[in-house]
Amino acid sequence: MPLNWMDLNDIPLEALLLLEKVQISWIPNNISSETQTALGTCLRAKPTINWYLSHKCPDIHAWLENILQSAPQENDPVKLRQAELLVLQSMMDWIVYVWDPSIYDKQPFLLWDSSELTNICDFSGKTVVDIGAGTGRLAFSALNAGAAWIYAVEPVGNLREYMLAKAKQRGFANFSTVDGLITHIPFEDQFADICMGGHVFGDDLAAELAEMVRVTHKGGWVILCPGNNDYDNALHHFLTAQGFQYGRFEEPQDGWKRKYWKQK
Description:
Elements: H1 21-26, H2 33-45, H3 47-56, H4 61-70, H5 77-90, H6 92-99, H7 101-105, H8 115-118, E1 127-131, H9 137-144, E2 149-153, H10 157-170, E3 175-178, E4 192-197, H11 205-214, E5 216-229, H12 234-241, E6 245-251, E7 255-263
Parallel strand pairs: 1-2, 1-4, 2-3, 4-5
Antiparallel strand pairs: 5-7, 6-7
């Protein structure tokens, strides 16, 4: 289902110039063939954007050249704008993160009961790592539950800045942000009491879990909240086979989700 977080009509294609290297690297595997063609057409019309994407993330240079060569040229400004909107729509979440994170922060599905997280274990006095922290939904819930220090791991710089401003506004000095990914968490072994993430787990199950477990000390907790939609899929079977417990809760507007937790 397409996201409808923001009205894209006034957003220029140049918003792609705000994307970070890691986001650009995700493009080839996250857009449809129709959107690839539209992107190629757009890049033909705006070569500066193509130059930026290619130089910011050389790993996709060959892919960009391929779609550029195979895409039709479009001289009709109305049709060109339609292609731009198709591209922007396919990346709406990434665009929101770099354009205005507060748009994401206002989404109804974030209004779930924080006790679904904080009742899993005792956060008081704990060192907590939040993976893919976004705008801080889990991180600030943990702070409100008495966490000693939060390390918010987030690859998008604009989101890190947003969270830092939010922490300052709320009077939390025990909050840090750091660049990183769930497969490359920038902390030493057994660093945290709690390692958690929401809507971030699932692309590389074994590698992601191994990294979360690595940075959690013995007796600590690994938590995914939300970790999955409410059905028995490969992710669910993988986690339960690893000894995770699970429960279910409702995200407003987005429906029932599952949370998973395990003590190391």
